[in-house]
């Protein structure tokens, strides 16, 4: 994502400007939600931005070698939870997807703390979704000169956290 020349914030430019990302699975956010962080809320004291504006931080983990369907099953458990409670829940889940989702939530919380001066204790998972990535295709030799296709799907995990008051 390259920053626009007209604005100091890192908005998308070109053909995809203002267009929401493709969406697969999970709860859809309202159509008017922008997927770039907007300052305000808890950071007003340190940044001088007026209060009352929404504040979100985002993290994306791409090309995770798990099926999106398996990741969505884990995401449905933690959607809407406070960040600390979600991480505690994911620690005790046996799925491989739980580790990757936890890693993305930790990254989003760190982005909120370090980039936007938000309080970690008040962070809530606003949106969490898994998009399908590219599928790696492999072939397994079979009897009589045949071959079966093996699909190795990948997933892009996106987590958006925000203040508890906004949720």
Second rung of CATH, namely the architecture? Alpha-Beta Complex
Q: What structural class do the secondary elements suggest?
A: alpha+beta
Instruction: Tell me the CATH superfamily.
Output: Ribosomal protein L22/L17
Order of helices and strands: HEHHHEEEE
The largest sheet has its strands arranged as 1-5-2
Major sheet size, sense and barrel closure = 3 strands, antiparallel
Low-pLDDT runs: 32-50
Number of helices: 4
Share in β-strands: 15-25%
Helix content: 25-40%
Overall outline: elongated
**Structural domain count:** 1
CATH fold-type name:
Ribosomal Protein L22, Chain A
Q: Can you identify the CATH class?
A: Alpha Beta
Number of strands: 5
The N- and C-terminal alpha carbons lie at a distance of 27 Å
Describe it for me?
This protein has a single domain (37-163), classed as Alpha-Beta Complex (Ribosomal Protein L22, Chain A). Helix content is 27%, strand content 24%. The chain is built from four helices and five strands; from the N terminus they run H-E-H-H-H-E-E-E-E. Strands 1-5-2 form a three-stranded antiparallel β-sheet. A two-stranded antiparallel ribbon has the order 3-4. Helix 3 packs antiparallel against helix 4 (96-116). 28% of the residues are buried.
Short recap of the structure:
With 167 residues, the protein is α+β, with helices and mostly antiparallel strands. It is 27% helix and 24% strand.
Task: Provide the fold topology.
Blueprint: H1 44-47, E1 56-64, H2 68-78, H3 83-91, H4 96-116, E2 123-132, E3 136-141, E4 147-152, E5 155-163
Descriptive terms for the model:
Ribosomal Protein L22, Chain A
């Amino acid at each position: 994502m390259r920053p626009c020349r007209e604005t100091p914030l890192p908005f998308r430019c070109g053909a995809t400007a203002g267009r929401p990302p493709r969406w697969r699975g999970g709860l859809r956010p309202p159509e008017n939600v922008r997927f770039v962080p907007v300052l305000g809320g808890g950071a007003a004291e340190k940044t001088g931005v007026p209060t009352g504006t929404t504040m979100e931080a985002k993290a994306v983990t791409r090309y995770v070698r798990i099926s999106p369907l398996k990741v969505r099953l884990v995401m449905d458990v933690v959607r809407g939870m406070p960040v600390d409670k979600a991480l505690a829940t994911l620690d005790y889940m046996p799925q491989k997807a739980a580790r990757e989702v936890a890693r993305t939530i930790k990254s989003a919380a760190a982005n909120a703390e370090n980039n936007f001066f938000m309080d970690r204790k008040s962070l809530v998972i606003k949106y969490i979704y898994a998009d399908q990535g590219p599928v790696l295709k492999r072939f397994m030799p079979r009897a009589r000169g045949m071959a079966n296709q093996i699909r190795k799907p990948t997933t892009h995990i996106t987590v958006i956290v925000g203040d508890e008051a906004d949720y």
